Amino acid sequence: MIETRQIKNFLVLAEQLHFGKAANLVNLTQPSLSRQLSSLEEQLGCTLISRTSRSVELTAAGKEFQRLAHGLILSIQDAVRGTQAVAQGSRGELKVGFTSYAAWTILPAVSKSYLETYPHVRLHLHEVLPADLTTLMKSGEIDVGVTVHPFDGSLRYQQLFSEPLCIALPSAHPLNQLADISVKALEGSRFILSRRDTFAPLYDSIMQACSTGGFSPEEIIYTNLQQSIINLVAEGLGVAIVPQSMRKFNHPGVSYRPIESSPEIDCGICWDPTNQNPCLLNLLALFPPAA
Amino acid sequence: MIETRQIKNFLVLAEQLHFGKAANLVNLTQPSLSRQLSSLEEQLGCTLISRTSRSVELTAAGKEFQRLAHGLILSIQDAVRGTQAVAQGSRGELKVGFTSYAAWTILPAVSKSYLETYPHVRLHLHEVLPADLTTLMKSGEIDVGVTVHPFDGSLRYQQLFSEPLCIALPSAHPLNQLADISVKALEGSRFILSRRDTFAPLYDSIMQACSTGGFSPEEIIYTNLQQSIINLVAEGLGVAIVPQSMRKFNHPGVSYRPIESSPEIDCGICWDPTNQNPCLLNLLALFPPAA
DNA sequence: TAAAAATACTCCATAGGTATTTTAT
DNA sequence: ATAAAATACCTATGGAGTATTTTTA
Fold it and tell me: With 90 as the cut, is the pLDDT of residue A194 above it?
């Protein structure tokens, strides 16, 4: 087998065209370098350098091998640097699973801040259902979830953001005449809700807010996208309780009102602590626990 | 320095994901392979394989290095094969200097026959003056001359072809009435000739033919291209003695007549015997001395 | 004759082997 | 308890050094 040491020393020799000088440069003695070249030539089955005691010059094959060997050494150096870059997470791939709530809230900021520090990492962003997150993470299809708390003991979760809920009313709704509205005022109104199985933490918080107000919604329309909820409210089909960040949609047919001591809904990142993907570790280092 | 042995063994290990099995495949023992990998990882400064007594798996850096290392091994094999191909002359470059006389005669056949056997060699064909041939060959700008005898003691020459001269007459010339013409009949005619310094062997042969006929040309028009000589003969400006191969131009205004026991003009290849270009050696082997 | 590569031999560093320990399931 | 990797220690091969010979201009 041809060893890189032989290749490197050949390149110096091909440059110097003098065994003694080349041997000095690579910290060998002339006889050692002489034998090393012979061994290389024997392995290749051809002469690379035609030499007498008075002249040392490359053969045609020697010139070709010099050209190719130079490329080889560069490739090896590139491979070393490439591998180190992946080990440090400055290159590589990070598969991100996010829920739609994350997409409205922290996903843009998290992605932007990560890519500012690690611009050469390829991010794969997959929108997933909260219910699928654990499975996808265990099977290695995603490295990190940007989502509400996954409630899975084998995953870790780091909260990055939380916000209160607020009331979403049609602009034309009679309650809009009042300066202050409590949740209790919504009793008996038709509620627009997403089903518990699409977004349990939000559903539970809404129910909690209602029960604090002393009632539970009776007339309900279910729809599974938050954007649809806002549209249905705008059409006057009912009222809703939504995360405050929904206000950014700024729909002209909808008014938002704060909820006193509202339950909070939170969002963050979750990951499998046994996943050693350096890109994941770097992401986690960017968002360290408050502790 | 990372050695190819380490790279190859890593690839087997990355494939097997089992130190014992991989060690067997590469004729090592498990502890040796274990240490060899540690050494590789130390040189790279990162872990390639995360391992416990129960599981062996590639890290992200390990997968990247596997990908890159695979390419490296292929590149090394390519370099070996490429170098061997150049050494055997099946790839490479052959710089050919040819004179115009060779271009009308043997150059096409020589090139074709060489390229049939060595299709991957890059031929560089340069038209040169016979006078420049020796200099260009000594300076390495051409490897082989396709030409008349160079008369240079440090070069070798292998004749491949020879032909007699013939008389070229304007079709309208009075001598054309006769069935047989001897060179002597041309005495007193105006001769179209190229100067001795452009093509000495031809010039000398023509003079020899005339002196055999018992005269030497008096009225002379000099022009240095054989094609021009034919054109001038066709216009009736004079007669010429040309190599028989000029008949292939088949100019309607020119008749050709044989010359009895004409001197021959020859053509072949010449080369510097110290030039070891494998492509040259292969060419010479295709045209061995008649001996 | 002199400069430089090749050869002969000697030696030692390090790659590799053997025996054993550690580790994780 | 067992399978497999790591470690400790020993061995030996082959790469490297020193001294010398050969070669060629």
Answer: yes
CATH no., domain A163-264: 3.40.190.10
Chain B positions in Cβ-Cβ contact with residue A79 (cut-off 8 Å)? 65, 68-69, 71-72
Q: What is the pLDDT of residues B68-84, one digit of tens each?
A: 999 999 999 999 999 99
Span A28-34, mean pLDDT? 94
CATH 1.10.10.10 is the classification of domain B4-88: yes
pLDDT at B291 over 80: no
CA of A143 to C1' of C25 (A): 26
Give the integer Cα–Cα distance in Å for B48 and B45.
Answer: 10
Q: How far is A56 from chain B (nearest CA, A)?
A: 14
Query: d(Cα A101, Cα A115) in Å, to the nearest integer?
Result: 21
State which fold the A92-159+267-286 domain adopts: D-Maltodextrin-Binding Protein; domain 2 (3.40.190)
C9 C1' – B12 CA distance, angstroms? Answer: 38
Q: A119-123, A132-136, B135-139, B219-223 — which one is most confidently predicted on average?
A: A119-123
Q: Are B259 and B183 in contact (CB under 8 A)?
A: yes
Can you read off the two tokens belonging to residue A107? Answer: 């996903």
pLDDT of residue A283: 97
**Quick one: which of B181, B145, B143, B161 has its CA closest to B265?**
B161
pLDDT at B40: 95
Cβ–Cβ gap B276/A80 under 8 Å: no
Entry pTM: 0.86
Residues B28, B32, B38, B41, CA torsion sign = negative
Contact of B45 with B38, CB cutoff 8 Å: no
Cα separation, A168 vs A163, whole angstroms: 15
A11-21 pLDDT, tens digit each? 999 999 999 99
What does each C-alpha distance from B137 to B95, B128, B186, B198, B228 come to in angstroms? Answer: 9, 11, 40, 18, 29
